[in-house]
Design brief:
The structure is a single chain. Helix content is 0%, strand content 52%. It is mostly beta strands and 149 residues long. Bound molecules: 2-acetamido-2-deoxy-beta-D-glucopyranose. The site of 2-acetamido-2-deoxy-beta-D-glucopyranose has 4 residues, from strand 4. This is Scytalone dehydratase.
């Protein structure tokens, strides 16, 4: 479950795909390199809703604030979002499914979606998708993000 996220600020490490990697060998493509994007503290509140449905147990965990700090991107997390995570009825594994908003220190808005299951080690490795109309941060629309927690 996700209980460690409730009523707390959680440090999160975010990695994003860097530019083009080394030249691929003909036999195996090289793995893309990752570069650090930011560390985030995501403030969540207690579960607002928990309901068993056709895909498992769906929760609604409000995301009410926090911040993010990195070399190219920093700012605050707005009080407008939630994690609508789902617990797989067969494995009891929780998968996060969040949507929330970032506001950069220079006033730009970024919509973010993250998703992914908790790994057997207990770590969360989330996939991230950014969306922004900001000219300055438009490059984020093409970033493939990975969130480690
Ligand atoms: C982000 O939030 C954490 C937890 O409240 C706090 O310790 C940290 O100082 C904040 N960072 C910034 C840059 O505001």
């Amino acid at each position: 479950m996700f209980s460690f996220l409730k009523n707390t600020l959680v440090p999160l490490l975010l990695l994003s795909q860097a530019g083009p990697g080394a030249a691929a060998s003909p036999a195996y493509p090289t793995a893309p390199e990752l570069s650090f994007l930011y560390t985030a503290y995501v403030k969540c509140e207690g579960t607002l809703m928990e309901s068993r449905g056709p895909h498992g147990i769906r929760k609604a965990i409000p995301i009410v604030g926090g911040n993010f700090t990195g070399p190219h991107l920093s700012g605050e997390i707005l009080d407008v979002g939630a994690d609508w995570g789902l617990t797989d009825p067969q494995t009891s594994v929780f998968s996060a499914d969040t949507r929330y908003n970032l506001r950069t220190h220079d006033g730009e808005n970024i919509f973010i979606q993250t998703s992914g299951p908790k790994s057997p080690s207990g770590q969360l490795h989330l996939r991230l998708v950014f969306e922004t109309g900001s000219e300055k941060y438009y490059w984020l629309n093409n970033v493939l993000g990975r969130f480690m927690m």
